[in-house]
Amino acid sequence: MGFGRRKTQDVEQPLVEPMWEGLRVLVHWDRPTGARIVEAGGVDVTSRFNEVVAALGDAIDADTAVLDGYLTVQATRSGEGTSITVVEAPTAAQMMGQMVLGASGERALGGPSTGASIAHDRPDAVAFVAVDLLEVDGTELLDVPLLERRRQLDSVMTDVDLARRGIYVRPPVESWYPSWRSIGFRRVAVKAQNGRYRPGTEADDWAVADIPRR
């Protein structure tokens, strides 16, 4: 599902996430056979990313699953790949501690962390960052609201070196912008938390905007 043309301010009850740069893909996971990675045009690129395939086997706790996300080098650069799933704006201290040093113990305003901090010593390595869960163990989630799909993603996937979950926050998000810009993000994706997933369409409740410089 692609991004529509709606202005970000017109998206109702939004979730906001930094926009990853890289190849948009779907990961089809089946425990007996492993992961198959298909890019947006339908081309199977699995054989090009053997390390990511291996990482997905460590990260996904389900018999079958379909995940939407990005293959990107951003996730292996210092700070950019730390996975935290929060629903309110953090303090400046929380923001820098979690984005740069990694989440441990309690996630900020979002419950217990499910993964340890991850070292970022391979800045050119490609990782998969999951931003949505479309199916799990034979149950299709396309008609499930986005926020619930993201919560289920947290229960299905943990973070490892080359496979992890993207972060998302609820407004107000302005306190996140300086940190996101400082570690390489330039745009944000804004998605309605109650939105459904319609494959092959442009979502009128998804939008993209530049991160303000101030």
How would you describe this structure to a colleague?
This protein is an alpha+beta fold and 214 residues long. It has a single domain (2-210), classed as D-amino Acid Aminotransferase, Chain A, domain 1 (2-Layer Sandwich), CATH 3.30.470.30. The protein is 17% helix and 29% strand. It has four helices and 13 strands. It has helices at 50-59, 92-101, 146-156, 177-182, and strands at residues 2-3, 14-18, 23-30, 34-39, 64-72, 106-107, 111-112, 127-136, 139-140, 163-165, 187-192, 202-203, 206-210. Strands 3, 4, 5, 8, 9 and 10 form a six-stranded mixed beta sheet that branches. It has a three-stranded antiparallel beta sheet with strand order 2-11-13, with no helix packed on it. The longest helix has 11 residues, at 146-156. The chain is globular and about 45 Å long. The two termini are 31 Å apart. Residues 80-120 have low confidence and may be disordered.
Sum this structure up briefly.
This protein has 214 residues and is α+β, with helices and mostly antiparallel strands.
Keywords:
17% helix, alpha+beta, globular, 13 strands, D-amino Acid Aminotransferase, Chain A, domain 1, 214 residues
Radius of gyration: 16 Å
Give a quick account of the main beta sheet: strands, pairing sense, barrel closure: 6 strands, mixed
Give the tally of β-strands. Answer: 13
- Structural class of the helices, strands and pairings? alpha+beta
Oligomerization category of the chains in this entry: single chain
CATH homology group: DNA ligase/mRNA capping enzyme
- Which regions are unreliable across 5 or more consecutive residues at pLDDT < 50? 80-120
What does the overall shape look like?
A: globular
Total count of domains? 1
CATH topology: D-amino Acid Aminotransferase, Chain A, domain 1
Tally of helical segments: 4
The helicity comes to 10-25%
CATH architecture title? 2-Layer Sandwich
The H-and-E topology, N to C, reads as EEEEHEHEEEEHEHEEE
* Overall mean pLDDT: 79
CATH class: Alpha Beta
Give the N-terminus to C-terminus distance in angstroms. 31 Å
Strand content: 25-35%
